[in-house]
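This protein record is not my work; I was only asked to verify it. Where you disagree with what is written, explain briefly why. This is what I was given:
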Amino acid sequence: MFTRRDTFRLFGGAAWFAGAARASADEKLVRGDAEWRKVLTPEQFEILRRDGTERPFASALLHEKRKGVFACAGCGLDLFSSETKYDSGTGWPSFWAPLPHAVSEREDRSFGLVRTAVSCRRCGGHLGHVFNDGPQPTGLRYCMNGLALEFKAA
C-alpha cells in the first residue's frame, strides 16, 4: 500500500515541500492576497503587501548583531548581509548595501515626499526605503522594516 509518507519521500521529502512554497532564487513568486494572508502575520501583510511601515524602535532585528543574512519574510530570498548592517539611529534596521540582485527600487511619491522605495526582487514585497545619507563605502542607508525581514544566523 502506498501511503502519504511514501509520496512525501518520493518527491524529495521536506526539501521538496519547502521548495513548493517558495520560488527559486531566479524566478518571481506570485501569490494572491488570500495566499499572502495565510503565510504572513497581519502586520507583515500590511508592510510587505500594502507598503506599510512599522513603528520606529519596535523591531527585534534593530539590535541584531550576529553574523548572518537578513532575508525577505515573505519569500525567504537573502537580501542583506550582516556585514553591511549598521546603527543609523533612525529606529529601523539599516544597511549600506543589499546583496547583488536582491532588491528592486522605484520612485515613491506617497505622503507628499519623493523617496526611493525598496522591494524584494523575487516577491515584490515592500521592505522600506533607501536614502543618500548613509556611511561609506556607498553613502546609502537602506532603512528596512524589521517585520519585512527574517534573520538567518551563519
The helical segments are 4-10, 13-21, 33-39, 42-50. The beta strands are 68-72, 78-81, 85-86, 94-95, 103-108, 115-120, 126-131, 141-144, 149-153. DSSP finds four helices and nine strands in the chain. Residues 18 and 119 are 23 Å apart (CA to CA).
